[in-house]
Amino acid sequence: MMLQPLAAEIPSRILPVCIDAPVLGNQYVSDRYWMLRLDAPEIATGVRPGQFVLLTPSQTPGEGPSLPRPMAVYDVDRADGAIDILYGVVGSGTTQLTRFRPGDRMTAVGPLGRPFEPPSDATRLLVVGRGIGICSLTLLARERAERGHAVTVLLSGRHRGAIIGADFCDAVGVHARQLCDEDGSSDVESIRRLLVEQYDPAPPDFVATCGSKRLLALCRDLGRRWTCEVQVSVEAHMACGLGYCHGCAAGEVGRDEESPLVCATGPVFRVS
Ligand SMILES: Cc1cc2nc3c(=O)[nH]c(=O)nc-3n(C[C@H](O)[C@H](O)[C@H](O)COP(=O)(O)OP(=O)(O)OC[C@H]3O[C@@H](n4cnc5c(N)ncnc54)[C@H](O)[C@@H]3O)c2cc1C
Ligand code: FES
Q1: For residue 55, what are the domain limits?
Q2: Which of 49, 102, 134, 231 has a C-alpha 20 to 30 A away from that of 141?
Q3: Is 172 helix (H, G, I), strand (E, B) or coil?
Q4: More confident: 182 or 228
Q5: In this structure, are 89 and 131 located in the same domain?
Q6: CA-90 nearest atom, ligand 1
Q7: Ligand 2 centre from 237 Cα, in Å?
């Protein structure tokens, strides 16, 4: 499977800034997930669906971990200048993030990376996400639904409690279908049958997905079947987030070329 960089031009992109953002909220949500709200008008004003921020988890000098952690912007309140980050606690950095309280300050850099870029005439969107990768898809679903586009979201997770984004979709009026491993509904072949049945008569004109390899392969197959554009948001370990350290090279292109950098060329790529 090939990941192709999006077009060289990034339409109306704002440059990333480094800010000392006041924490407005940081609450446990469910399973291993927490929701963080930052007062970050400099980022909120221009962030686009699929872009991310780098958050510094340490609060005091000398405290680890030393590198910031990449997190997708889950939602934005442009009027209030706030961004929401939904994060899963997996290691030392995300554990540190849970210690922030309202009124604390967090160093944040963003908005970073390439956003999703659906074709300009796309009005029927299919969004397929699994686990924490869903966080990079929510803003796309919301903003497209607000434009009156037909958006369907499939949310997949290990079990019911691990499916994220359902409340968000309800709140913003996007139809979401929940699938989980527990009852077998997230099995790739079941999803394929479901989508073929639903979309063969009138296919979507854009499919967006996230890092799950099985869902990515499914979306690529369906994109070929329906001749529609498929884009994926990819995850990688990151250090600088700005294209300097080359720590996030995706290793997805031919042997003679340098791998694309997920932070700068992605995280959103065209799937072919
Ligand atoms: C563009 C982008 C957007 C992201 N958005 C979100 C988000 O919205 N919410 C969220 O919870 N997470 C998101 N992630 C993943 C998040 O950055 C990592 O989970 C986080 O950095 C882990 O930090 P840690 O210190 O807690 O874990 P570490 O102690 O660094 O690692 C703990 C475990 O997690 C694994 N891990 C660490 N980073 C990643 C990664 N990038 N991908 C896969 N596995 C990893 C490690 O291999 C290890 O097994 C995103 C990553 C990228 C690249
Ligand atoms: S994280 Fe440094 S180049 Fe991508």
Answers
A1: 17-112
A2: 102
A3: helix
A4: 228
A5: no
A6: 26
A7: 8
